[in-house]
Amino acid sequence: MTARIERLVTSGTFSLDGGTWDVDNNVWIVGDDAEAIVIDPAHDAGAVADAVAGRTVTAVLLTHGHDDHIRHAREFADKVGAPVLLHPGDLMLWEDVYPGTAPDAEIADGEVFTVGGAELRAMHTPGHSPGSVSFYAEALGTVFTGDTLFAGGPGATGRSYSDFGTIIESIKDRLLTLPAETAVNTGHGDSTTIGDEAPHLQEWIDRGH
Hints:
Oligomer: single chain
Strand order of the largest sheet: 1-2-3-4-5-6
Strand content: 25-35%
Distance between the termini: 48 Å
Radius of gyration: 16 Å
Shape: globular
Largest sheet: 6 strands, mixed
């Protein structure tokens, strides 16, 4: 059975630095008919569990610790009996949502997660947050970038724990070096490709300063 990628869009809110915004999030399900990995099960644990449809969830991978991405991750993981993993750089954001607790495991740069015969390699891509991670599935021609890279540019860096120079370095050194045809599946909005985004790097740098 060949691994496939499914997208579920859920809606809710994002809160940080005293503000709250309405957001739509992409939930990514990677796997085959037997097992799946779920990336960022946002807003609606029941809807994500329905989308998984009885498959064994081997891991819940979080691209970063902002509350729209993690607030319902524990509820979803409990429903499906899966561990929740987050990069240690974002543990302070986890603590804001789940005081006095920790994720089930930490994500390390270069760590490989296998599901349905496909491998997802964790790439530490800080900037949007210190612990932001992208997941590169070479065999599927896809990278899951969370809120690090969108169609049209880098993720937001105007709030706590974020840094524009850092996100640009992550995108330039770790993402834009991937094959041009690589699909970029993002935390919000439409997907794009590395080849579509790469020519605009200097524009983003000029716009950001």
